[in-house]
Specification:
Blueprint: E1 27-35, E2 41-52, E3 62-66, E4 93-94, E5 99-100, E6 105-109, H1 140-154, E7 161-165, H2 167-178, E8 185-189, H3 197-211, H4 231-245, H5 248-254, H6 273-286, H7 291-302, H8 313-317, E9 323-329, H9 337-346, E10 354-356, H10 364-367, H11 369-380
Parallel strand pairs: 3-6, 3-7, 4-5, 7-8, 8-9, 9-10
Antiparallel strand pairs: 1-2, 2-6
Amino acid sequence: MAAVPSESPFPRRAGWWREGDPVGCRRFARTGDQVLEAGGVLPDVRVAYETWGELAPERDNAVLVLHALTGDSHVVGPAGPGHPTRGWWDGLVGPGLAIDTDRYFVVAPNVLGGCQGTTGPSSLSPDGRPWGGRFPFLTVRDQVTAEARLADVLGIDRWALVVGGSMGGMRALEWAVMHPARVERLLLLATTAYATADQIAWCSPQLSAIRSDADYHGGDYYDVGDGLGPLAGLGVARQIAHATYRSGPELDLRFGRKAQQGERPLGGGGRYAVESYLEHHAGKLAARFDANSYVVLTESMNSHDVGRGRGGAKAALARVRAHTVVASVDSDRLYPTRLSEEIAARIPGCGDVVEISSPHGHDGFLIEVDDVGRLASDLLSR
């Protein structure tokens, strides 16, 4: 395991992790140089991760939890030094919970290309400067390769369970296709075997918003001015994305046509309540996430296609050997149930899709913790 790197000479962004920042519960592993699917080599990769529970002497009780686009390794626990937010799946992992840390050793890595300790655009390159716009193109398969190397470092040959939703579900699925012998059970939540045209279309204006921000500087903003980068563009990207993460009926029920308190949108003099809501989430993300990582990870999601180079999705999914459960959210308009049904129909031995009932849209896989917990507990009992 690697020690915490030395202090970076570049401006530090509150929220996303830079060399010399508090590490919280994070640990770090160096996994070496990595050849990338789209070409090139990413040198001396570092993976940040957190763990809960203890690895059994037989090393057969390890569970891999994979986060979504703007998540990180902090699955459970309070906010604090090294952790800008509370755990994003509190109530699922812990003693006596669905993924019981009295029985299982839980590992949660920060994704390759992220901004919470794993090598990404804000990391220092070999020349001592942040990668910035020079950071190479990553695919979901590259991210899984980094996670597989982390598993090697930890001495884990086979996962008792791999679980992920959304982008984390893409990686979980790739794990089971790339390394079928290393995944015993698989829980896929609100995800897809390939990025659809609709999903790519929603991502396109998000990427444009960041890249068209005058403070983007082609991704080389870390040592320009205050080093904070394209906060406005990142905020707009988040507003677009967040609208797709929630359901239309939920937004109508919560906000309707109400004006934001004290404001008068009629005549252009104020905002509707739903606009204030989106701006609030935009500000929260801009305070804790790096715009370059948002670009890199979004492009990796757009490139996701489990069937690429494998004879199509049907042939690729036939490789899966894990006991698999696929779940969707009934109100998800970004990753609709039909995409989960395609996965379930093509994985050997997989049953019907479990549809989680939730008014919250795509974010339901994060919010409906009791439902997800029952699925995880039932799968682990097999």
